[in-house]
Amino acid sequence: MNLKIENPPVTLRELCLEKMRNAIITGYFPSGKRLVERTLCEELGVSRSVVREVIRYLEAEGLVEILPNKGPIVSLLNWDIASQIYEIRLLLEQSAVADCTKNLDENTKKRLIILLEELEQDFSADDINHIIATSAKLYETIFTTAKHHIAWEVVQRLNGRISRLRVMTMKSTKREISGFQRIKNICEAIYLYQDPERAKQAVAEHIAEAAAVAKNILDQN
């Protein structure tokens, strides 16, 4: 007898956490906005205890901060914070794509191609939520194939803030090359050219352009 639960049910807290996280990432709740418990309870249709638990999780992810005598607000995003995130991404992603290229097998190649096709469709449909989800799957494939499991844990902890920056820069018209084309260049360097140095260079170009756009936006705020 197999007692394993293959598809465990999603809890109310997990549903609310996903809703709140996406609301912050996509800008529905802008930077600095106060998160009032009563209002959130009404919008989400849940109890205060669930809202408080979700806020604690979001605080741990760096998406919410608690101010004395004011309560929770959406974390402020400035260039000092963003620049550190881009620096961390550069170090971790360059190393991951290089080792992913070295460890590449047919299954990984097929998965990267499939995810890249999905991502292209997401960009064409301008579907922010799907772009974020598909991008996460693609990067997880790269880090897992590279056997950079601890590095992927670090990326996951930063993922909320990375996604906020990704959405912000995607909305800008000042990108010389689209985010999708940059990611495609990285993937093709891995599975088509199988060139670790080319993959690292593609990562550097992708992050440098995104960082420049982010700096321009944040400096104006």
From TrEMBL:
<dbReference type="InterPro" id="IPR008920">
    <property type="entry name" value="TF_FadR/GntR_C"/>
</dbReference>
<keyword id="KW-0804">Transcription</keyword>
<dbReference type="InterPro" id="IPR011711">
    <property type="entry name" value="GntR_C"/>
</dbReference>
<keyword id="KW-0238">DNA-binding</keyword>
<dbReference type="InterPro" id="IPR000524">
    <property type="entry name" value="Tscrpt_reg_HTH_GntR"/>
</dbReference>
<dbReference type="InterPro" id="IPR036388">
    <property type="entry name" value="WH-like_DNA-bd_sf"/>
</dbReference>
<dbReference type="Pfam" id="PF07729">
    <property type="entry name" value="FCD"/>
</dbReference>
<keyword id="KW-0805">Transcription regulation</keyword>
<dbReference type="Pfam" id="PF00392">
    <property type="entry name" value="GntR"/>
</dbReference>
<dbReference type="InterPro" id="IPR036390">
    <property type="entry name" value="WH_DNA-bd_sf"/>
</dbReference>
<dbReference type="GO" id="GO:0003700">
    <property type="term" value="F:DNA-binding transcription factor activity"/>
</dbReference>
<dbReference type="GO" id="GO:0003677">
    <property type="term" value="F:DNA binding"/>
</dbReference>
<protein>
    <submittedName>
        <fullName>GntR family transcriptional regulator</fullName>
    </submittedName>
</protein>
<feature type="domain" description="HTH gntR-type">
    <location>
        <begin position="10"/>
        <end position="77"/>
    </location>
</feature>
